[in-house]
Amino acid sequence: MSYIEVRSDKKVRIKNFPKILHRLCKQSKGGITKVSRASGIPRASIYSILTGAVTCIPEDTLRRLEAALSVDFGVVFNYDSDLTQEVDGSFTRIDLVHREVSDQYQTE
Length: 108
Known about the structure:
Oligomer: single chain
CATH topology: 434 Repressor (Amino-terminal Domain)
CATH class: Mainly Alpha
Largest sheet: 4 strands, mixed
């Protein structure tokens, strides 16, 4: 099984992330090139995630991919836990208006 770890002060494992990302990129008009432009992430970096060559990404990369694909992978970092968490890789499509409004209220 493939997975990707998202790096912050804590780690969250997303099961089957390369496969899910590949499917979402294919469904996106313009594919990986469009996702790369929208996220500001180089195509080569996206390909490295898709092939499994990269198994740990910064939280910012995950959030930029979410924004470019208009999805929410449901990753929440639990800073009260010392354990690596796992999520099942499911995602929710979001509308951009909701995302922009909710981004105003996020704390760092």
